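job 3f2a | input accepted
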Amino acid sequence: MSPTETLRARSAPSAETLRALLAARPVVLAPMEDVSDVVFRRLCRGLGAELCVTEFVNVEGLLRGCRTARRKLELPPDDQPTMIQIYGSDPSRLAEAAAVAEASGPLALDINCGCWVPKIAGRGAGAGWLRDPDAMVSMAKMVVERVALPVTVKTRIGWGPESHMPILDLARRLEDTGVQALTIHCRTAQMGHSGAADWSWARRAREGVSIPVLVNGDIKSAEDARRALEETGCAGVMVGRRAIEHPWIFREARALLDRGERLPPPDARERIALCKAHLRANVEARGEHHGVCVTRRHLSGYLKGLPGAAQLRQRLVVTDGLDRCLAILDEALEGRRSTAPAEAGAWA
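job 3f2a | predicted structure (348 res):
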């Protein structure tokens, strides 16, 4: 047996675990820089995210021993199943970093070939790989041969115009390297987040391979998740930006997919409880000042639809202390209960 065959044989149990998870049509938390950290993964998993992916891990920082990169590899026992995503522009460094990341015990290792942000893609990493599909395939093969865990790839449908969308051929070639699953964000790199995601590309790619394919892009509701799965036949959906403001999407999508049930939106009590829980967890993980600051990006979504939400959010974004933030949230809930009976339904 060749070294490659030996590695693949060793990875078989993990590959089977990954396939079994994907066979259940999971709703997956996407990798998002400065968002999908261990705190947010726990929160989303508690709301129904069956599989989570870490923030992007820069392979150069990881191999230099950068504290931030190393922190992103930390997977506590309750943080499973989680995939670690790595990115870089040098194939040999990606393979080396994959071996380092493997030691953290993730479900799988994901290669970021989809980030369109210029400071990443412009340097040949992330979606920059789509400008040279041959190099991308060779890189994926090098990573697969270096590690025993399953390797997956998250990518886009192409770099630029439709005439340069390699995803259909690329999906088949990546499968041939031993990649175990693909996530396809159904926009080009040049589109960024603009325009509509065209899920038909995920369907066409899925039809050409035997490995699981997940569809990503414009999954904004439970109904979107169901429709994306029905239209593409994909193994699952991946949710990114919507989860930042509305992590309840995982619970809502799971209810619709599993039971055909449309859940009501969270009420004020639950929205404020989530704000408080997220604040406390971020402060515990990051310290008071930074923990409070990084939670602010979620507030407009968490408080959306509540009476006086804009004013409440404004008070919170200029407040640094954890105790004061918690007091403001408690005051808002208690004050609305006692002074706004006409809005009692929103604040039940």
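job 3f2a | The chain is about 50% helix and 10% strand.
job 3f2a | closed
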